[in-house]
Amino acid sequence: MIPIYNDKLLEDTAEDWQEFNDILLEYRIAEIIQYVNQGPVLDVGCGNGEISAAIAETGILVHGIDPDETKIENATAIGNITFEVGDIETWEVPHLYNTVVCSHVLEHSVNPYTFLMACRDAIDINGRIVVTCPNALSLNKRIAETIGLSNSFKLSVTDIRQDHTVLFDRDRMRGLLVATGFEVIVERGIMLKPFSSAQMNKYLSAVWHDAFYEIGKDPGLIDYCSSLLMVGRKT
């Protein structure tokens, strides 16, 4: 039997939580690279460089920036990929980029509006931004709220632990992109996740993970997916 989601359970199963979030990253990468078809690309909040590396493997020139010096030190700059320490809101943009990728970064921003405006300023005419965020109305969060364990739009202990400052659902994410000068041309969900990350890793095998990922591609289930992906064209 799968135990009920709660913060103590996640605390006690931190290893499972991390392992499944690594799995989720692979699913995100598979979705993101579908919408990055021309360089140069700027990966904002690139972390350890996993997404940058996946894009670079397609032959596209990628530059990754992140304010965390340790993460940049862990990122490997090879061939057509480079990294540097930088915060998009204060970074001096050396040239314009065809595509800006911002994956699971926006929810960490103190001011998402100024953050996206800074991203927009780095994009060339007719360029695009590819954004992913955790979904505040994902299936597992809806279940937790229904049984009285959480509030979808209130930062949980897990959110705080991950340094999340703001939560997005589909409408909020789309509205922010439009408000910052983007035409939203793609909206997708990534991974239908009925349980917490720790529970998904501990009790379900890779076959189940892949099945929930495939089901999450259904356009009718976007609002229930674990993460949201949107592509915005600069206007």
How many distinct folded domains? Answer: 1
Q: Do you know the CATH architecture?
A: 3-Layer(aba) Sandwich
Topology, number of strands:
7
Under CATH, the homologous superfamily reads Vaccinia Virus protein VP39
Question: Oligomer, anyone?
Answer: single chain
* Count of runs of 4 or more consecutive helical residues: 10
Low-confidence stretches: 1-5
Mean pLDDT: 90
Largest sheet: 7 strands, mixed
Termini gap: 51 Å
SSE ordering: HHEHEHEEHEHHHEHHE
The radius of gyration over CA amounts to 17 Å
Class from secondary-structure proportions:
alpha/beta
What is the CATH T-level topology? Rossmann fold
The first-level CATH class is given as: Alpha Beta
Spatial strand sequence of the major β-sheet: 3-2-1-4-5-7-6
Structure commentary:
The protein is of the alpha/beta class and 235 residues long. The chain has a single domain, classed as Rossmann fold (3-Layer(aba) Sandwich). The chain contains 10 helices and 7 strands. A 7-stranded mixed sheet has the order 3-2-1-4-5-7-6, with helices on both faces. Helix 3 links the parallel strand 1 and strand 2. Helix 2 packs across helix 9. The longest helix has 19 residues. It is globular and about 50 Å long.
